[in-house]
Amino acid sequence: MANKIQAILGRDVSNLGHAGDIVNVAPGYLRNYLIPNLLALPVSKSRIEQFEHQKKLVQHQLNKLKALSEEVRDRIEVQKFLIEVKTGEQGKIFGSVSARDIEAILSKNGYAINHRDIKLESPLKTVGIHKIAVRLEGGVMANIQVILAAIEEKVEEISTESEENVASDEE
Predict the structure, then answer these.
(1) Own/partner pairs for 38-47, CB < 8 Å, 24+ apart?
(2) CA distance 166 to 150
(3) Between 129 and 138, whose confidence is greater?
């Protein structure tokens, strides 16, 4: 059995470790997979110092990002976001409201949140207030309130107006 050698991971590698970790791997795995794919480098004193410095910089940036995300969380959790939906006679929504619809209403309010960061177990299909978990940068979670309200349309008035317009066009 070959001896294990140490390598510094340049990126997260599943089942092995995170970026900056020093791991023991087989020489062939390092030489044939990790190095060609720019996932790791062999250990040296200068590389260890370089990665330690980079870890400190990344940690500092992550702390700043987390603080900004906590401020956004405090602002976003007190707001309520209204989405108007068409409903039938029994109050059921035509279709559903998905994470992309919520992303659109958040972006209209000045929040750049990706639909993948909106944690919906299933699309919203009922009128009312829904609490939804949203993942922000730096691992910060926020709970937003989305209000689904029925659009008030008077179908009878619209149909009578269109009948009047047709009648006036025929004259």
Answers:
(1) 38/10, 38/11, 39/9, 39/10, 39/11, 39/13, 40/7, 40/8, 40/9, 40/10, 40/13, 41/7, 41/8, 41/10, 42/5, 42/6, 42/7, 42/8, 43/5, 43/6, 43/7, 43/8, 47/8
(2) 29
(3) 129
Q: In a 3-state reduction of DSSP, which class is residue 73?
A: helix
Tell me if 7 sits within 8 A of 43, measured CB to CB: yes
User: DSSP H helical segments within 79-133, as ranges?
Assistant: 99-108
* pLDDT at residue 55, as a whole number: 81
Q: Tell me the chain's radius of gyration from C-alpha atoms.
A: 27
The reported pLDDT for the residue numbered 118 is: 93
Place of tokens 């990126």: 11
The CA distances from residue 126 to 10, 79, 81, 97, in Å, are 47, 20, 15, 9
Whether the pLDDT of residue 162 is over 60: the answer is: no
Report the predicted TM-score, pTM, of the whole model to 2 decimal places: 0.61
Distance CA 133, CA 109 (A): 17
Token code pair at residue 111: 């929040």
Which pLDDT belongs to residue 26?
94
